[in-house]
Write a structure and sequence with these properties.
The protein is mostly beta strands. The chain has strands at residues 3-6, 9-12, 17-23, 33-38, 45-50, 57-59, 67-72, 77-82, 91-97, 113-114, 118-123. The chain is globular, with a radius of gyration of 13 Å.
Amino acid sequence: VQLQASGGGLVQSGGSLRLSCTSSTYSLRNYQIAWFRQAPGQEREGISCTNTGVPNTFNVDSVKGRFTISRDNAKNLVYLQMNSLKPEDTAIYYCAMPQGILGHCSNWNLYDFWGQGTLVTVSS
């Protein structure tokens, strides 16, 4: 499975970025998709995900109210809109999908396939 994440960059604190995830292999509408991030010296963490079907998303507390995950099925894209960015959001961001269907998309340990990551740097 090939996933491609893009849209990272350098932004000032309080700014916004929109990340995109797509696949050249599969139609993402049929899969639960999650965004993870890994900050320097820290473990990778799941932060936002979307189930299939009726829009059903989940965000961890650290990004709730600031980040929004959404789909554009016509373009085979999953977005992560990130607003009110903070320096602690600096990390490599990855999109991921599971091989099967998870009970809920926030089962972070069960994701099998990963994009290459895109770097987000938030300056203070």
